[in-house]
Task: structure prediction
Amino acid sequence: MRLLVDGGLPLGEWDSDTELVLDSLTFVWLVHLLEERHGIVVHPEAEEEIAASDSVGSLHRNLVRLLPGGPDREECRHAS
Result:
């Protein structure tokens, strides 16, 4: 989850169960990086679900749903 590190969160030892709390500034930065670097647009109707992600794994699952092709995309099958 390089985007989280770039958003100011320390890398440390993360796995999919690592608790995650996104403050509003980090969330806005994450959404910005998703669009700028990956062309992923988080529409207003998806913002609440993404912001409510409470672990690294749940954020990953919620973001995969935004990608064209959804969770079936091969490069998104790993947990970050």
Notes: The longest helix spans residues 24-38. The CA atoms of residues 16 and 58 lie 8 Å apart. The chain has four helices and no strands. Confidence is low (pLDDT under 50) at residues 73-80.
